[in-house]
Amino acid sequence: MHFVILVEDQSGKKALDILIPKIIGEQHTFEVKPYRGIGRIPSNLRGKSDPSKRILLDQLPRLLRGYGTTFAHYPKDYQAAVFVVCDLDDKCLKQFRSELLTLLNNCTPKPETRFCIAIEEGEAWFLGDIQAIKAAYPKARDAHLNSYANDSICGTWETLADAVYPGGAQALSALGWQMIGAEKSKWAEHITPCMNVDENNSPSFCYFRGKLRQLASMTA
User: Fold this and answer.
1) pLDDT for the residue numbered 218
2) pLDDT the model gives residue 192
3) Contact of 28 with 216, CB cutoff 8 Å
4) Which sequence spans correspond to the domains of the chain?
5) What is the rounded distance in angstroms from the CA atom of residue 207 to the CA atom of residue 124?
6) Crossing angle for the helix pair 56-72 and 93-105, nearest 10 degrees?
7) Is 139 helix (H, G, I), strand (E, B) or coil?
8) 45-64-208 Cα angle (round to 5)
9) Which residues of the chain have pLDDT under 50?
10) What is the chain's percent helix, strand, coil content, to nearest 5?
11) What architecture is domain 2-122+201-217?
């Protein structure tokens, strides 16, 4: 099976490029396509969007329609699926998932699609594997790591920054969003090679892992 993974930023791509082969092995193909932020689902699901503005949810109606058309022309023995991986942030999970499913149901034909939402942010998946963080950052502060409740709404990237970044989240925040993004990419590069995908305490990561393996097993 071929998997197209849509993510909201470069740090997500760096993490998934490493993690996906660990989850589904080498017999399947995949490509991770990064965007420049999450944005919001347009109110007019059939409206046109500017492809040059690479904001994930803004582009998602156009993208899913396009993949639906493309996948429909693939040979029957070649199967493909889209995974949309994004952060929940401060949204209501039930409402957000409902909006995504409404968007998908407006596609004719519909591509095989799974929505996988990191709660609250992608760093929750790193914090689901404390041993991997400690392997990548041996001086990580245990007090911050051990106080984290998996997939809690607590300021997830800030929790990881407090554990591994000199001066913590306050010092990193003072440098601005560009530096925060660069540091998140470093976390992805350093932590994900150490992660054990079968031993992760983040429920949203386990959901993502399960959906990938479920589809992969259908073509095994």
Assistant:
1) 82
2) 98
3) yes
4) 2-122+201-217, 126-194
5) 13
6) 40
7) coil
8) 115
9) none
10) 50, 10, 40
11) 3-Layer(aba) Sandwich (3.40)
In which residue are the tokens 């760096």 written? 14
Task: Say what the pLDDT of residue 163 is.
Answer: 98
CB 131 within 8 A of CB 196: yes
In the prediction, which pLDDT does 77 show?
A: 86
Count other C-beta atoms under 10 Å from residue 142's C-beta: 10
pLDDT at 43: 84
Which residues, 6 or more positions from 78, have their beta carbon under 8 angstroms from its beta carbon? 2
Say what the pLDDT of residue 44 is.
77
- Which two three-digit tokens encode residue 182? 């660069």
Structure tokens, 163: 């554990």
DSSP string, 181-219: HHHHHHHHHHHGGG--TTS---HHHHHHHHHHHHHHHTT
